[in-house]
Amino acid sequence: MALRVAIIGSGPTGIYTLKGLIGKSEPLEITIFESDAEPGKGTPYRPDLNDAAMLSNIASIELPPICETLTEWLRRQTDMELQHLGVERDAISEREFYPRVVLGEFLHAQFQQLLNAATANGHAIHLKARHRVADIELRADDIRLSVKALDDEPAEFGFDHVVMATGHDWPETTEVRPGYFISPWPAPLLKTIPPCNLGILGTSLSGIDALITVSTAHGAFMLDGLGDLQYEPLPGTEAFRATMMSRKGVLPEADFYCEIPYRPLTFCTEAAIENAIATRKLDLLDAIFDLFKQELVACDPDYAASIGLSLLTVETIAPAYFRARETNDPFAWAARNLAEADLNKKLKQTVEWRYAILRMHEVIAKAIPHLDADDLKRFHKHFKTVFIDDYATVPHESIRRLLALHRTGKLEIVALGNSSEIDNKSVERGAVVRTEGRELRFEAFIDATGQHELSARDIPFPTLVGQGVVRKAATKAAFSLDGAEQEIVRTGGIDLDDDFRLVFEDNLSNNLYCGSIAFLLHKLPFVQGITSARDIGEVISKAILKSNAPPLIIAQA
Question: What are the DSSP E strand ranges found in 193-258?
Fold first, then answer.
């Protein structure tokens, strides 16, 4: 009897898991449950949730191939299909950023190819669109799913392995009070915001996308006679003004050119990190920081000197890293940074300090699950933001749009500092933001701070929760100098093994895999994006195939 595998969700994580399962192995029976009507696009890339102006934050060259690369797929589309996607054939490039909906169409096409390949390789595939998994129950020999299709009564299915690949966790209702939106998605709802004073919490790409969506409802971005991007407001939209807010009040930097595949690191290597994990029990995070400093000095000594790196600690690196941007006008800084990034892209020139931090984040991530409770807290509070800012750069076009809006008098940036209050209850619409003696009133307000961490208590499957098998991630308490055995504390996220399976002691199936990004962020803080979906899918699919491999027979002499 073929092994029965269920994949909940057909976004990037589900797609890469499916890719890993459908090779020429023992036949599998794979059922894919997708709540949407069009499987294979993924929530962040669905056309009904996104505006055509929303850009993806991953260049084509960084997108892991599925059946083909994104550029290969684009180049074989007809001119009419490219026009529908809003892509110019001459502009197709490995270094280009495309709208989110383009990635959705690419993922959908790759998903269909995988389904065909699976059938050709002898696997049985059952695709169930518009089916929402309502509950999960672990049993001794299998896993029960309760699945609801549209208005039908829930039906029950049994599986040997189940993969939770539900991806982003976005609320079903976003305008929770008049003019107050707790998410930029679904984007079409933002088009209903009238010309008014708009507040946006968050300056990352999510916030930029929200702003651009509203802006294109009240005007258009056009090239002038010199080829510069300008914003042209529509008549009657004079009241439209936007304020983007964040704690630091800085904009993300423009995507920077770098060599791909990555050059090897010299000091902050996987071997050095593994050695630190094995030998530096009392001060693992500080040992990692020492490796970080050594690598940064070696790669870009001038930058290291400019921020005083030799005297910095885990607690002081972020203020030094952000100081120049925080003390300059955000739009002046953005204009200079964009010019630098444009030139470097043309010259294929790498800014070494940025490239070093980018490469190090993937290596340092391997040590985060090994930090004790105190160091894990220190990492999240102080050190993590440096890496996230470095890799969360945005398309050049996004910066050009922000500058165009600012030149037209439609956009400003506000730094909220460490203490601010958002009040949406004392006003009929929108919100009031109070910070450091200043009060800002907005007739519409969008929280665009992105995907938040979820923990064990947020699991949406009541029977699974009731079984007591979902627990917060286990973290060792801070080491004591007297050598006493460390106790285990539960700090957040979900307790998973190296194959993303739940960790528990009960005599139940342990073949439930959690590949849902929001539950992984606590111990794997950099697992956002399609490359992470590929990595998670590969690990889970290998674990499933390993369980299905025929037993090894050793011939007797």
Answer: 197-201, 219-223, 229-233, 241-246
Which helix or strand (DSSP H or E) is residue 488 part of? strand 488-490
Task: Note the pLDDT tens digit of each residue in 280-308.
Answer: 988 999 999 999 999 999 999 999 999 99
Q: How many CB atoms within 10 Å of residue 325? A: 19
Structure tokens at 67: 């059946």
CATH number for the segment(s) 175-252+406-447: 3.50.50
**Looking at this protein, which amino acid is placed at residue 440?**
L
The one-letter amino acid code at 456 reads A
pLDDT of residue 481: 57
CA separation for the pair 392, 205 (Å, rounded): 8
Architecture of domain 3-168+453-548: 3-Layer(bba) Sandwich (3.50)
**How far apart (Å, rounded) are the C-alpha atoms in residues 6 and 481?**
47
**Can you tell me which residue has the tokens 């059938």?**
119
What is the torsion angle, in degrees rounded to the nearest 10, for the CA atoms of residue 368, residue 369, residue 374 and residue 378?
Answer: 20
Structure token digits, residue 138: 């672990």
- The pLDDT score that the predictor gives to residue 170 is 67
Nearest to 169 by CA among 514, 534, 526: 514
CB-CB contact of 372 with 478 (8 Å): yes
Q: Are 3 and 521 in contact (CB under 8 A)?
A: no
Intra-chain end-to-end CA distance of the chain, in Å: 32
Domain ranges within the chain, ordered by starting residue:
3-168+453-548, 175-252+406-447, 270-391
Q: Which pair of structure tokens corresponds to residue 316?
A: 């002081």
Domains 3-168+453-548 and 175-252+406-447 share a fold: yes
CA-wise closest residue to 190 among 179, 201, 177 = 179
| DSSP secondary structure, 150-162, as one string | TTSPPEEEEESEE
Q: What residue ranges in 218-344 does DSSP mark as E strands?
A: 219-223, 229-233, 241-246
Looking at residue 158, what is its pLDDT? Answer: 97
**Average of pLDDT values for 161-189?**
88
Ranking 245-249, 268-272, 478-482 by mean pLDDT, the lowest is 478-482
Q: Which amino acid is at 292?
A: F
Nearest CA among 204, 181, 228 for reference residue 54:
204
CA neighbours closer than 13 Å in the CB half-sphere of residue 183: 17
User: Which of the residue ranges 40-49, 142-151, 163-172 has the most confident prediction, judged by mean pLDDT?
Assistant: 142-151
